[in-house]
Design goal:
- By secondary structure, the protein is α/β, with parallel strands linked by helices.
- Among the domains are: about 1-70 and about 180-245, 3-Layer(aba) Sandwich (Rossmann fold); about 80-180, P-loop containing nucleotide triphosphate hydrolases (Rossmann fold, 3-Layer(aba) Sandwich); about 250-300; about 395-465, no CATH class; about 565-639.
- The protein contains 20 helices and 18 strands.
- It has helices spanning about 40-50, 85-90, 95-110, 120-135, 140-150, 165-180, 195-205, 220-225, 245-280, 285-300, 370-375, 410-420, 425-435, 450-465, 480-490, 505-510, 530-560, 565-600, 605, 610-639; strands spanning about 5-10, 15-25, 30-35, 65, 70-75, 185-190, 210-215, 230-235, 235-240, 325-335, 345-355, 360-365, 385-390, 395-400, 470, 495-500, 515-520, 520-525.
- Helix 9 packs antiparallel against helix 10 (about 285-300) and helix 18 (about 565-600) packs antiparallel against helix 20 (about 610-639).
- The radius of gyration is 33 Å and the shape is globular.
């Protein structure tokens, strides 16, 4: 057991957010935590990580038990880093204990000539074993492996953290957590700022995670690939289901149906008993029997009425004007960001057409220009080239960051100010349709949650009655239930859709075409996202096969031709001889290193300071010689 909690309650004013929540996390557990926005998922994670305290409730005293020396890594939705440090410095701090051990070892090595005390000798042996066991010599390699996998480059290592965007900082924070390798890794929406390639790398990396995982995510693909159990927070109560997300949805449905049947059967039994008592209680001949049934009713353990899920948002996108078949012509446009000397061209010479009724997903790495393209199509960014919409086109737009909302206006006023012809009742009805109700409609848009802002934007989008929808990451802040409602509404919409998304499920369900933005160009893929992924997989396999075949063919040609000058043959012979010499020397050094390391546990050595000093100094010499020989070997192979 890594961590176990029982009786966790939390109140916010009169809202009982967590109700006697209990959870046990074992080593190697892969747990997904799901629930509606605002149900208390992040609150529960903060309590587990002791960033917030639970509340006592009646006789239910909260208790959290942890394994000794448990290391917990927590990636919050707004993770922070030291902005003054470089990326290299931040990543190095993940190995602070190892680096501290190395510094102490170096200090002790410097004292070896003048002599070490018995305590210092023991300390050096302990630190050396710790350093070796925890792969202290490979920290730089591990740092680069994780950073490259998460989409960073060698040049980023020297950049200061403050120069990165919010999404990039979140990725850096995740990189640092992965390098720290805690026993329990807690991730709150880890895929929000990741592209497809990076998400795929992260999934593969976490599949081999040695510790336990506790993940809050709205990415159903992510949960399906990683999780072996799902915990649902509903009305403050936590229920755990075995299996991934797909299994969870099936088990939850079956559980609710079973509970409903049991409840209805008991209600029928109760009604039958109550009717019998009412009809027979006053009759002498049946009074005793009626009294018996009355006692039966009193003793019966009543089944609570099963929970009926809260009403979901109702989204429907309609339009009245049907545009021409040839809807959009784009010719030789450029995509630029910044201005003046800092202006940067992302793409130029982009041309494409869009026909009525097409649903096009726009994909690409972060920074490729996806959101910029949508803004150019809306003519709100300056650009070269032609963007021509057909007559009768009416655009409906959803922005990723809700940029057009007034942060100081209330939800109610934001909608009413845009559509003053609507009555107060109509405004409240429309907001109720997207499940913005009660006091929430009188909160400022700048303080409501991201999911609530998204719902307000969908209410505005429905009022725009666009026959073309331009959507920028429409599912980013939505809970799973609202995502499904949105997906259904977009499926039923028979107009045209161009949308940017990292939601693989949404892309596969909605888009019949893809605009793929990469390497400074836009290419069109005709087909579903799953077909695109399969094409990429086949292409990668084909390239690898072709490269292997070309290498084999070249080797065969070189072998058959046999044409090399006397000088070339002489140089090649010398290179092979030098390689063989280096490999033999490295083998000998490795054998000597193994023998010396084994001798450290020999009392005859560990108890003799002089011998211990000689062994440690020789081990350090061997490590340096191995590094030098490895560099020589690499240079020879590249020659």
């Amino acid at each position: 057991m890594l961590i176990s909690c029982t009786g966790i309650n939390k109140f916010y004013q009169d809202n009982h957010v967590l109700r006697s929540v209990a959870l046990t996390v074992e080593n190697q557990d892969r747990i997904g935590l799901v629930g509606d926005n605002g149900c208390g998922k992040s609150t529960f994670l903060r309590i587990l990580t002791e960033k917030e305290l639970p509340d006592a409730f009646e006789h239910d005293e909260p208790a959290i038990a942890k394994a000794p020396n448990l290391r917990i890594g927590y990636l919050a939705q707004n993770a922070g880093l030291d902005g003054s440090k470089t990326v290299q410095e931040e990543m190095n701090s993940a190995f602070a204990p190892l680096r501290e051990a190395k510094q102490i070892m170096q200090a002790l090595e410097a004292k070896m000539e003048s002599g070490l005390t018995d305590e210092e000798t023991d300390e050096y042996a302990r630190l050396s074993a710790y350093f070796e066991t925890n792969d202290g010599y490979t920290t730089d390699v591990r740092i680069r492996t994780v950073l490259y996998g998460m989409g960073f480059s060698e040049a980023d290592l020297s950049r200061t953290v403050s120069g990165f965007s919010g999404g990039e900082k979140t990725r850096l924070a995740l990189c640092k957590l992965l390098l720290e390798a805690p026993d329990l890794l807690i991730l709150d929406e880890p895929t929000n700022h990741l592209d497809f390639q990076t998400v795929g790398w992260l999934e593969d990396y976490l599949k081999g995670w040695r510790g336990a995982l506790l993940i809050v995510s709205h990415d159903r693909f992510f949960l399906d690939r990683l999780c072996t159990s799902i915990c649902e927070l509903e009305r403050g109560e936590l229920t755990r289901y075995k299996g991934n997300y797909t299994a969870f949805t099936k088990l939850r449905t079956e559980s609710r149906e079973r509970q409903q049947k049991e409840y209805e059967a008991q209600q029928r039994e109760i009604a039958k008993l109550e009717d019998y008592v009412a009809r027979n209680k006053v009759r002498a001949s049946t009074a005793k029997s009626a009294k018996s049934r009355e006692k039966q009713l009193e003793k019966m353990e009543r089944i609570d009425r099963p929970y009926t899920a809260a009403k979901q948002a109702k989204l429907q996108f309609t339009y009245s004007v049907v545009p021409p078949l040839d809807l959009l012509e784009v010719k030789n446009i450029d995509l630029t960001v910044g201005s003046g000397l800092s202006q940067k061209t992302l793409m130029d010479g982009i041309s494409f057409t869009v026909r009525r009724g097409e649903k096009i997903g726009i994909i690409g790495e972060n920074g490729a220009g996806k959101s910029t393209l949508l803004k150019v199509l809306r003519n709100i960014l300056p650009h070269k080239g032609l963007v021509r919409w057909a007559a009768g086109t009416r655009l409906g737009c959803f922005e990723q960051e809700s940029e057009s909302l007034n942060p100081y206006a209330t939800v109610f006023d934001e909608l009413h100010d845009r559509y003053p012809a609507l009555s107060d009742f109509e405004v409240r009805s429309l907001l109720g349709q997207v499940r913005l109700t009660g006091e929430n409609v009188f909160k400022e848009t700048g303080v409501i949650s991201g999911g609530e802002r998204a719902k307000l934007c969908f209410a505005i989008l429905m009022m725009e009655h666009g026959n073309v929808l331009l959507l920028d990451e429409p599912t980013n802040h939505l809970d799973l239930a609202t995502k499904e409602v949105l997906e259904q509404a977009l499926c039923e919409f028979d107009g045209t859709i161009l949308f940017v998304s990292h939601d693989r499920y949404l892309l596969d369900r909605i888009a019949d075409n893809l605009f793929v933005m990469e390497n400074g160009a836009l290419e069109r893929f005709k087909g579903r996202f799953s077909a695109y992924q399969e094409q990429i997989r086949r292409k990668t396999e084909a390239e690898q096969t072709a490269a292997a075949e070309e290498k084999r063919r070249k080797a065969e040609e070189d072998k058959k031709s046999g044409y090399r000058s006397r000088e070339q043959r002489s140089l090649e012979a010398k290179r092979r001889a030098e390689q063989k010499r280096i490999e033999q020397e490295m083998d000998a050094l490795q054998a000597e290193q193994n023998t010396l390391q084994d001798s450290l546990s020999d009392p005859a050595v560990s108890g003799d300071y002089g011998k211990m000093q000689q062994v440690c100094m020789r081990l350090e010499e061997i490590r340096q010689q191995q590094d030098d020989l490895l560099e020589e070997l690499i240079l020879l192979e590249d020659a």
